[in-house]
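Everyone, study these two lines:
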Amino acid sequence: MGTEAAPRVATGRAVPWWRRPAVIGTAVTLVVVGLAIADTTFVSTSSLAQPADTAKEYADLNYDTVVVPTIVDGAQPLDTLLAEVVANPDAAGEKYGNREDATKPWSFAAEATGTVVEGNFGEFGLEVDGLPDGITVGVAVPPLGSNTAIRDAGTDLTFGDFVNQTEYQTVAIELNTRAADAVYGDLDPESLMGQQVHVIGAFTWVSKTGGEIDHVTIVPVQIEVGP
């Protein structure tokens, strides 16, 4: 009789889960994705600004594409922001604000909806619900002058980025000029009295008189009227 082939016997020894093709493929994918993320640098909008030799050139290159988006994207609701600022200005500044160095006041991007009322010289008042007791708000009107809030909240600039202090200060003036044209070009501030507006802009947490801070002035980059 011929020799019959021995029947195959299942050993029951399955391939370990970690050696299966699907698992290996998934693991490799996760490693590649992880390495890609680790090798990626995440940058803020303001760090994408194009360098410039003069203040005017900087504003021309970066106001619409970098400065305004930085402020709009970073704007915090004014009521909750001011509550944190009043409680601990430095903690709020580290979380939401920007400043050139530790000797300078914090500047913040903010948004608020309120009713326009009479304000101080150079601004209209804004009645906003939910603000900390004793704090009032105004919105700057043209000419916006040399207020540095937009520059400080919307850029990463420092004094060393320009040839002298005058040119660095002029950046604030140039950015304010563009804000005035963009916001108030077709908008008469006097026509806003009694109306509800939504404002996005920047303010600096500082007292104009050197005393206790009880008022903030938002320099606007956007104002929407209505409904």
About this structure: The two ends are 101 Å apart (CA to CA). The beta strands are 76-77, 107-117, 123-127, 136-140, 196-204, 215-225.
